[in-house]
Input
Amino acid sequence: MSDCTFCKIVAGRLPSHRVLEDEHALAFLDIRPASPGHTLVVPRVHARDVWEISEFSHGKVADMVHRVAALLKTAVAPDGVNVKHNAGEAAGQDVLHYHVHVVPRWHGDGLRLTWNSSPASARELEKVLERVAAVR
Output
């Protein structure tokens, strides 16, 4: 897509700090990092989000996420890592090209990517499962 920022990065029309790439995916450092080493992994083929990306491309991105996480483990020695995708504006997606955040984490870093929620009742879970089963 001609107006997509990540498509322009993939095509080399916008600068990026490339971490790793292959014929299917590209990993580059986030310009607004949540932590040192925060890397984005994108498919070379445009897809808006997890609902639009093909299973094949999703698998190739997942392969690269795995390789990037291993590189970052050695390079920046984090205590942990978050792997995150936001689908849609309601979930916080701000660039509408499928991308996965690989965010190195350290104890006490103060970064909040989790939520606190109450446990669901068995009945609430059953209701959701019934809705999923109805469309499977």
User: Anything to note?
Assistant: The chain has a mean pLDDT of 95. Strands lie at 18-21, 25-29, 39-43, 80-84, 100-105.
